[in-house]
Amino acid sequence: MAVMDHLEEKSRPTLYRSLKYWGKKPHSIWREIIEYNTNYKDIVYDPFAGSALTFFESLKSGRKPVVADINPLTLFIIEVYSGNYDMEKLITRFNVIKNIVSNTTLYRKNYIGKCMNCGKTIDIYNYRWSGNTQNGYSYKCPFCNNVYTCKESIEVYNEDLGYWKPDLNIASFQSVCSSSLKYFGSDLISDVWSSRNLEILSLIFNLINESDSDLRLPLMFAFLQTLHLTTKMCALRSEKTNRPLSTSWGRPAYMYLKNRMEQNPLLQFERSLFEKNGVIKALNSKEEYLPQYTFSQDIDDIDRVDGIVMLENSKVINGFNADFIITDPPYGPVIQYGELSCVWNCWLEKFDPKYKLNLQDEIIVNNYKGYDKYLQDMTAVLTNCKSILKNNCMVLTFNSNNTQDFDVINKAIINSGFNIKHKFLQKNKRSSEANVSATSNMSISDYYFVLEKASVCVCI
Ligand SMILES: C[S@@+](CC[C@H](N)C(=O)[O-])C[C@H]1O[C@@H](n2cnc3c(N)ncnc32)[C@H](O)[C@@H]1O
Ligand SMILES: [Zn+2]
Fold first, then answer.
1. How far apart are CA 287 and CA 28, in angstroms?
2. What is the pTM of this model?
3. In sequence order, which ranges of 103-194 are alpha helices (DSSP H)?
4. CA–CA distances in Å: residue 310 to residues 79, 217, 276, 313
5. What is the rounded distance in angstroms from the CA atom of residue 395 to the CA atom of residue 392?
6. How far is the CA of 115 from the centre of ligand 2 (A)?
7. Does the C-beta of 428 come closer than 6 Å to ligand 1?
8. pLDDT band for position 427 (cuts 50, 70, 90)
9. Which residue from 103, 134, 241, 429 puts its CA 20 to 30 A from 26's CA?
């Protein structure tokens, strides 16, 4: 197994950059591990699929992926990339949406200004806030071909456009910083956006829903990328960085930021479609990188499709055979995947009720689920893996600085009838990736465990 140690991560193709998911693994390393451990057409199973890289890397290698996750984002991304889209039609529809949104009074009063250099009309990219004080705004003037930051403030104009908005209560979420709810303004997820941004988002969402059925998925994909980047959780970069149009949701928490950037939802939607890591580039990238594929959500279809994705609790998944398993389970309490995902999922479920996230099924440690339950759940999934696994090798990755998390993983591995044949630390290349350096509970390197069934392996 030594060949699997210290692999070098290659640069990520755009198809992996467009969907934000906490804790994404290095795609090229996973592919090398998959290829090393399997043959052409072998079945590769991942019970915690997340952003679906096992699915895509297995397809790329000519293997057959079977993946599961309780998070519908996994199904969503596999569905989006399985389609072929008429780009011209997509762009035309985007322009219609842009036209409608930018002609509303709400948009015009909040996001249209005058260039301080040439005096022509410009779209405001973002407002800079420090608490309740607006410290100005930034924009890119298409006439001067320059980016400006203006120190003046512009009065906020609010209006209820009357479209559907999410009303999920997040007060009980472990991932909500305790003081933030007060600043957000209520217990509802809708208050992670400013009132004007929420209204504009709800209008864009409504227009996506009214689009032709063959365009809804890619438009929704761009909308998902827009959502977290238009909240009150987006950091203002320091002036030194000289990137007044750039921000991120960097910490894995619902966290109101005093010094924040309020981004224009329409422009962010446009950027999410057209920019470097946007949907159009991602769709082109998947065409170059992946074979065309078919998929099903039903494991019984395994012989007639290229891959299976199950929106299910992997505790109850059993009854098929896999040649190899590779997975990256939740890391104890470190990242609250399900809760954090609600920023997207509360809209996604409205977009199509089949994308339902069942938080009760999540294997995690938080205010409601302790370490005993985590051990029980991880043991159940790994026991299923043992019976699903036809051959002897399974790879499991883990990331935490907390010994208790490791204790549980070790126990679950042993309890379910596996031995740890080998383990190694794999340095993460992307220290800038928020998910890698996100919390003090995370390690800069990922741990890789190579497991074998206990009956055929001597424990070390
Ligand atoms: C560490 S993340 C996987 C990230 C993935 N490796 C990637 O690169 O995107 C763990 C995943 O386990 C999923 N999960 C948690 N409980 C689950 C369950 N009972 N059944 C299936 N998936 C579950 C979470 O939704 C999350 O996507
Ligand atoms: Zn100008």
1. 17
2. 0.95
3. 105-111, 180-184
4. 12, 19, 31, 9
5. 10
6. 5
7. no
8. confident
9. 241
Residue owning tokens 């890698």: 436
Please give the number of the atom of ligand 1 that sits closest to the Cα of 317.
20
Question: Which fold would CATH assign to domain 2-83+292-336+359-456?
Answer: Rossmann fold (3.40.50)
User: How many other CB atoms are there within 10 angstroms of residue 39's CB atom?
Assistant: 11
Exposure string over 429-445, b if 16+ CB within 10 A, otherwise e: beeeebbbebbeebbee
Question: Ligand 1 pocket test: which of 69, 175, 365 has the largest number of ligand atoms within 8 Å of its C-beta?
Answer: 69
Query: What pLDDT band is residue 10 in, cutting at 50, 70 and 90?
Result: confident
- Give the DSSP letter string of 446-460: EEEEEEEEGGGS---
Report the nearest-CA residue for atom 27 of ligand 1.
Answer: 50
Measure 137 CA to ligand 2 centroid, in angstroms.
Answer: 14
**pLDDT value of position 439:** 54
Vertex 424, ends 393 and 60: CA angle to 5°? 55
Q: 50 CA to middle of ligand 1, Å? A: 5
Decide: 349 and 355 in contact? Cβ < 8 Å.
yes
Q: Which of 69-73, 148-152, 354-358 has the lowest mean pLDDT?
A: 148-152
**What is the number of other CB atoms lying within 10 angstroms of the CB of residue 157?**
14
SS3 of residue 169 by DSSP: strand
Cα 378 to chain centroid distance, Å, stands at 22
- Alpha helix ranges (H) inside 134-212: 180-184, 195-209
> How many Å lie between the centroid of ligand 2 and the Cα of residue 121?
8
How far does residue 141's CA lie from ligand 2's centre (Å)?
A: 5
Strands 295-296 and 307-310: parallel
pLDDT band for position 344 (cuts 50, 70, 90): very high
Residues with Cβ–ion distance below 5 A, ligand 2: 115, 117-118, 141, 143-144
Residue of 264, 254, 111 whose CA lies nearest to 176: 254
C-alpha to C-alpha distances, 140 to 110, 112, 211, 252, 306, nearest whole angstrom? 16, 12, 29, 30, 45
With H, G, I as helix, E, B as strand and everything else as coil, classify residue 404.
Answer: helix
Structural domain boundaries of the chain? 2-83+292-336+359-456, 87-273
Is 42 near ligand 1, meaning CB less than 6 Å away?
no
CB 195 within 8 A of CB 166: no
- Residue 141 · residue 160 · CB < 8 Å: no
pLDDT in tens, 216-228: 999 999 999 999 9
| Residue 37 and residue 20 in contact, taking contact as beta carbons nearer than 8 Å | no
Kindly state if the Cβ of 336 falls inside 6 Å of ligand 1: no
